[in-house]
Design goal:
Shape: globular
Radius of gyration: 18 Å
Strand content: under 5%
Oligomer: single chain
Number of domains: 1
Largest sheet: none
Amino acid sequence: MNVLVLILAILVGFIFYSQQSVATANAMSRAARAARKPAAGRSGFGEALAVFGGALAGDAMWAAAALVLFFLAQQLAPARVILSIVGSFFFLRLAWGALQDARQGIVPRTDLPADKEAFQTGAQISFKNPYALGFWLGASAATLLLLSSAPSLLDFVLFFVGIVVGAALWSLLIAWLAARQPGSLSTGFFRTVNVVAGVAAALLGVAVLWATVTQPVVASPPEG
């Protein structure tokens, strides 16, 4: 159970961050600017990673707050059912957006202005995005209750670690590609990412909704 929580959380974190187009666009813009002016400061990889670092700091805060709220609310059966349905809605909404972007061939911009430090830019994006609290509240409830009717404290910790790892993997991938192989960040790359993310998010959303409808979540005390 614990291993499944970690694996699924990494997948959710990666999918969620692959759809954070503003952070990705800012990271790619920083890397492109550093490539044009290599003597201006940090490397393109460092600049892009700093943007993601700031964004991840804010999103980690929202995710932690969401997990605390769910941990406190999980004793209430109605809340568990409602949060599972909300989580499925968020997954399906994420899937719809990803598949629409894939169909339109959306690619993040690389010409955004740099009016703040890279870390500050990323932090501003995530700290001012309360949508993330709702997403993580629904996503954490949906994912954990999909795997267990009584998630333990360890499951909550592993879920948090997993989503941070998943987000970090996306951040490292994009920062490295933007700095070393910017040409690979093409329409084809993002179309593939969006299709995979959209299908995975849709499957998660449907699985959660089906499990909630066919086997309503019954409140029970958390394990150890």
